[in-house]
């Protein structure tokens, strides 16, 4: 049996997407050295490209790749045992055999190590994308708009700390598990939000990042199906991703939620997100992600922007604000109040936020104010607010949107 | 046993816990606060047991003497700590532990974490074994 070149490339690519974390995780358990494990895992994928054409794609590609990578690692370890003895090794427990414990998972060990709270949040995100999602260093660098050499140094520094400070390669014990799962989800959420609105540059949505985040959340949910916070985060990401395709108009303009073509929202993702959310809401108290997902679900199910259940949305924001006090949540709540009670009420709800130093350079505050002022036909102040919003965003698509609104307001100002 | 294997599961590494804080606030503590503080350290010792290799409180920063060489190799002696900061080094523990998680678990017992002005830094000790 032999497959064509294209089929082999597609099969290896798919195995990379689905199995990379498992292959690397199982190899690292053996090598106790992340760099060596990465090299061996990459070699295994290279060998797959060479041999799968002849031998056919194996029935369980992940198991095939893992076994090749681990064999390769054993060879290297045998050859270099004297040299390796001097290197700091990952602190790992012996693998416990048997499927009785779902948390005995190589991918989990890898992700808990990459998201250890002793690493900076930038390092956690970079390591997770590099080691768990299998992105190359230049890809990770591009996602965060830093030069590849800077990102390479960041990753190397983090790996060195893991080895030298002995950040263990292990799923944390029951006393630490909840806190550490929260730290993992925080990284996944951050990867998604970075991708959802790229802070600067020419793309509004970075699909490589949002897709990586969703894959991570799916993997975590599969391994820990009863963890409510994980279900809630996956629900939230799916519900937001369901409208990813409609955030830009055909001519490349940004479309606000109020303007999006709702018939093109991904109903399958919405249904999946909705059922995960129902599951997550059974847990009390609901997590931050469950509340955010509940708001996203109300949007997803509303026939139109004006026909949205704003009363319910405001009351969920009230709960969210108690659980997760943040000026950004307050801002979103004020926008919802403006929708429930009119632009004047929205403006009033925004006004206490204007003095908040945390929002002083937050462009969405100026943009939200500008929108209320525009709807109140207060053209001079709307114009000033749009100008302010423009100075606060570097995303070209957001800038184009704000410029268009500014032009419309300026026209009204000239011809009352 | 399979694996790189030269360092087994029972292997230990050494860590230094550096205790930092504002000396003025330490000086202002009442006897009762010190008793609670000492009890915290006793609880740490009880839990850490033989993993504590050494641990000391240091005299306050004004008692420090710092030495530093200039470009010509001449040694300058200054009265005071090497770095002049509001929060200075007040003590240390030298520990032996299996990994960072174990050190962090023990460190959380230390009473310096009950105050806003003081805190801990964990540093792995270089192992040339």
Report the principal-axis shape of chain B. Answer: flat
Helix-strand pattern of chain B, N to C? Answer: EHHEEEEHE
How many beta-strand segments of chain A? 2
Structural class of chain B: alpha+beta
**Oligomer description:** heterodimer
Strand order of the largest sheet of chain A: 1-2
Report the sheet-strand fraction of chain B.
25-35%
Instruction: Please give the CATH class of the domain at 5-84 in chain A.
Output: Mainly Alpha
Largest sheet of chain A: 2 strands, parallel
The number of distinct helices of chain B, counting runs of at least 4 residues, comes to: 3
Q: What is the level 1 CATH name of chain B? A: Alpha Beta
Work out the strand percent of chain A. under 5%
In whole angstroms, the N-to-C terminal distance of chain B is 21 Å
How many domains comprise the coordinates of chain B?
1
CATH topology of chain B: Alpha-Beta Plaits
CATH topology of the domain at 5-84 in chain A: Rna Polymerase Sigma Factor, Chain: A
């Amino acid at each position: 049996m032999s497959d064509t070149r294209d089929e082999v490339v597609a099969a290896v690519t798919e195995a990379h997407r689905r199995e990379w974390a498992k292959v690397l995780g199982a190899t690292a358990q053996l090598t106790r050295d992340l760099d060596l494990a990465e090299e061996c895992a990459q070699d295994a994928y290279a060998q797959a490209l060479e041999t799968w054409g002849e031998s056919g794609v194996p029935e369980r590609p992940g198991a095939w790749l893992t076994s090749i990578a681990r064999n390769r690692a054993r060879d290297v370890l045998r050859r270099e045992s004297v040299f390796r003895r001097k290197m700091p090794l990952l602190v790992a427990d012996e693998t416990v055999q048997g499927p009785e414990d779902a948390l005995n998972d190589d991918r989990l060990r890898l992700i808990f190590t990459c998201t250890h709270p002793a690493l900076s949040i930038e390092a956690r995100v970079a390591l997770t994308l590099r080691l768990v999602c299998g992105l190359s260093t230049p890809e990770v660098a591009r996602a965060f708009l830093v030069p590849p050499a800077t990102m390479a140094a960041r990753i190397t520094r983090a790996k060195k700390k893991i080895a030298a400070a002995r950040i263990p390669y292990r799923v944390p014990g029951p006393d630490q598990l909840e806190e550490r799962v929260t730290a993992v989800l925080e990284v996944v959420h951050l990867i998604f939000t970075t991708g959802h609105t790229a802070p600067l540059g020419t793309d509004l949505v970075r699909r490589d990042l949002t897709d990586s985040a969703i894959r991570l959340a799916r993997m975590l949910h599969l391994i820990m199906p009863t963890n409510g916070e994980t279900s809630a985060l996956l629900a939230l990401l799916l519900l937001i991703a369901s409208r990813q395709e409609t955030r830009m108009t055909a001519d490349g303009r940004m479309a606000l939620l109020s303007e999006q073509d709702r018939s093109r929202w991904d109903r399958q993702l919405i249904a999946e997100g909705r059922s995960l959310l129902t599951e997550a809401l059974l847990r009390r108290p609901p997590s931050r992600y469950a509340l955010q997902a509940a708001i996203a679900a109300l949007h997803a199910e509303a026939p139109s922007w004006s026909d949205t259940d704003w009363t319910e949305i405001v009351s969920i924001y009230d709960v969210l604000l108690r659980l997760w006090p943040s000026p950004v949540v307050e801002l979103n709540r004020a926008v919802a109040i403006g929708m429930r009670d009119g632009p004047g009420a929205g403006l009033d709800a925004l006004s206490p936020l204007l003095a908040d130093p945390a929002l002083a350079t937050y462009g969405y505050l100026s943009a939200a104010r500008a929108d209320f002022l525009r709807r109140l036909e207060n053209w001079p102040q709307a114009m000033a607010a749009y100008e302010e919003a423009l100075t606060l965003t570097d995303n070209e698509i957001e800038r184009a949107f704000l410029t268009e609104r500014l032009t419309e307001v300026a026209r009204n100002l000239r011809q009352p | 046993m399979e694996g790189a294997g030269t360092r087994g599961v029972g292997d230990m590494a050494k860590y230094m816990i550096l205790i930092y804080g504002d000396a003025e606030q330490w000086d202002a503590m009442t006897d009762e606060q010190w008793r609670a503080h000492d009890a915290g350290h006793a609880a740490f010792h009880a839990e850490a047991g033989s993993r504590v290799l050494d641990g000391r409180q240091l005299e306050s920063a004004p008692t420090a003497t710092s030495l530093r060489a200039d470009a010509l190799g001449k040694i300058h002696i200054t009265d005071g700590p090497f770095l002049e900061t509001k929060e200075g080094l007040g003590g240390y523990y030298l520990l032996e532990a299996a990994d960072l998680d174990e050190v962090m678990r023990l460190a959380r017992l230390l009473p310096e974490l009950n105050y806003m002005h003081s805190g801990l830094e964990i540093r792995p000790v270089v192992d040339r074994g």
